[in-house]
Amino acid sequence: MLFATPEFNRSVPGYVKDVVDWPGIRVPRRPLLNKVCALMSASPDRHGGVFARLELAELLRRAGACVVTDLDVAIGHANHEAIVHRSATTPIERLLARVEAALPERPRSVSGDLVQSL
After folding, report:
1. Which numeric CATH code is attached to 2-117?
2. 97-109 pLDDT, tens per residue?
3. CB burial of residue 63 (10 Å; 0-12, 13-18, 19+)
4. How far is CA 3 from CA 6, 17, 38, 82, 116, in A?
């Protein structure tokens, strides 16, 4: 699973926390248990949301997920649209390629799209 989060006040926004917390309350219990997760974050500061990513990783671990931190992507200065268009594509494409390479071979969809094949 790929989780992407913005960073607000050096933390994850409440709605992102709810995405992790609420499924654990409903049936079936602990739907994130043993799920492999990669994280992305964006922030208008130069750190690229590292604080939000750290907090999100902890939330996911408490929910039973396996967080793969060597695949993390951080996009700093995300509020500058021109920078986002130039710099965001490359790290995201690298992340998706690494995630796809780590997946076991499985039948692909007609389009071969990573998201559709998961």
Report:
1. 3.40.50.360
2. 776 776 666 544 4
3. middle
4. 10, 11, 6, 23, 16
What is the value of pTM for the model shown?
0.68
Residue 106 to residue 25: CA distance in whole angstroms: 31
**Residues 63 and 19 sit within 8 Å (Cβ to Cβ):** no
Q: Where are the domains of the chain?
A: 2-117
How far apart CA 77 and CA 42 sit, in angstroms, is 8
Question: What length is written for the chain?
Answer: 118
3-state secondary structure of 29: coil
Record the tokens describing residue 75, joined without a space. 């996009």
d(CA 62, CA 72): 18
Q: What is the pLDDT of residues 30-56, one digit of tens each?
A: 888 888 888 888 788 888 888 999 999
Q: Dump strand ranges (E) for 1-118.
A: 2-6, 36-42, 66-67, 73-75
